[in-house]
Amino acid sequence: MLSPLRNKDYAKLFSAQGIALIGTGLTTVALALLAFDLAGDQAGEVLGIALGIKMVAYVTLAPLAGALAQAFSRKPYLIVLDLVRAAIVLCLPFVTEVWQIFMLIFAMQACSAGFSPVFQATISDILEDEATYTKALSLSRLAYDVETFVSPVLAGTALLLVSFDALFAANACAFLTSAWLIMRTRMPDPTPHAAPTRVIDNITFGLRAYLATPRLRGLFAFSMTVAAAGSMVIINTVVVVQAALELSETWTAILLSLFGLGSMAGALILPRILARIGDRQVCTSAACAMISVLGLGTMATGFAAMAAIWFVIGAGYSAILVCAGRLLNQSSTKPDRPAYFAAQFALSHACWLVTYPLAGWLGGNFGLPVTFAILAGVATLAFALGIFLWPAQDANVLDHHHPVMDHEHMHIHDEHHQHAHEGWEGPEPHCHDHHHAAIRHNHRFSIDLHHPAWPR
Asked: What does each C-alpha distance from 175 to 36, 100, 145, 172 come to in angstroms?
């Protein structure tokens, strides 16, 4: 599992991710305390709106960020976003009105929507070996799960000595440290990007390319299965423990930790599983497991049963998220990768934007058995759609035909660009109007400017 850390550049990025996650976890605690300071008993409503703002920012701005990332060198792009996030967090202690919280949260999550997909795409470029990259994805998943345990403990310890405002300062330091580690990381040289000429086409390229790729359409459907099961955990754990089972707050924390342990277990064993079976089989198995335990939730009554359900949901959740990174890597070329990751980031969070309020509304109005049943139904429909959209025979190398094409973009003389020059075009990569003759060949296929449609 730790072999990716032998790569010094990946080790720096992993450290940057872990430090930034812990800092963000501290802000989550501090934000709840700030909301209570400003809104009292309405703090829950404030945090709920803030969560909605976060999801809206992710869904609407990630595709734009994916397009912007193609216009800039990745290292300064990531550093600037970390510095901006640090500046925004430092503003939070000075907030005096609830609307100011909403404004700053939107600004910070807008930066995160730009940062996270590009950061993930950069890791796949640094670790080109698929087995090593799979382990890196599992390590990343573990980092998220460990943060859920570590941040509350650190926050609780710090609050014995300082006010919650200091937690915002700690998060700012975490973002600055992340920027410093990224600055010290060697990143691959940018590959010339064949971008659409129209601005709107460039912004929507990632979404269009993602949805034109059969396996990624299937992944989108499985993301809805993940969101349906995960929303039951995140939204209704407190209801399950303290209303249905009539247990204390401590048991709420224990049940949430079992979800995290399931996610960690899934991340730990997944590299070995993926070495033997394919991503499609892993995703279908994980989705079936989550659907099954959601169905069992309609009849479960004791804490032990709920603990087993939460653990299985955590393991399935982790399995599909790790496969998502592998599938995006397989389906894109280096210059287009940020756009693909941004599309997955936006579409997967769109699923959560639907299931979060659905899980809360169902739990509050119809009770837990009905909530389990309806979310199981949503997850099942998404699973069936995923199976239909993702072909069982899913080769990476495809035989395909190129029609005659004339266009202009940055390029090098690869297998798609074999043409004569007059001498004025300059060194590669360069940009000029050029002609493509009709050709039929095969290679690892992905949707891009030269391959606008998936071969039939």
From this structure: 25, 21, 19, 5
Q: Residues of the chain whose pLDDT is less than 70?
A: 1, 41, 43-44, 69, 71, 189-199, 201-202, 398, 400, 402, 406-412, 414-420, 422-432, 434-437, 441-443, 451
The predicted-structure confidence for 148-206, as pLDDT tens digits, reads as follows 777 777 777 787 787 878 888 999 999 999 999 999 988 876 665 555 556 576 678 88
DSSP 196: -
Kind and range of the H or E run holding 407: strand 405-411
CA distances (Å), 456 to each of 32, 398, 445, in order? 52, 10, 12
Name residues whose C-beta falls within 8 Å of residue 83's C-beta, 6 or more positions apart in sequence.
Answer: 175, 176, 179
214: exposed, middle or buried (Cβ count in 10 Å: 0-12, 13-18, 19+): middle
The predicted pLDDT at position 84 comes to: 93
- Chain centroid to CA 333: how far? 18
3-state secondary structure of 424: coil
Kindly give the residue spans of alpha helices, DSSP state H, lying in 40-129: 43-69, 74-91, 98-126
Q: Provide the H-helix boundaries in 275-336.
A: 279-297, 303-330
Residues 6+ apart with CB under 8 A from 306: 240, 241, 245, 255, 297, 300
* Alpha carbon distance 47, 42 (integer Å): 9
Continuous H helices in 331-412: 337-366, 368-389
- Please state, in angstroms and rounded to a whole number, the distance separating the CA atoms of residues 367 and 372: 9
Rounded Cα–Cα distance for residues 190 and 312 (Å) = 40
Q: What is the DSSP letter of 129?
A: S
Residue type, 338: P
pTM of the model: 0.86
Residue 87's CB: how many other CB atoms inside 10 A? 15
- Chain centroid offset of residue 304 CA: 31
| Residue 354 exposed, middle or buried by CB count within 10 Å (0-12, 13-18, 19+) | middle
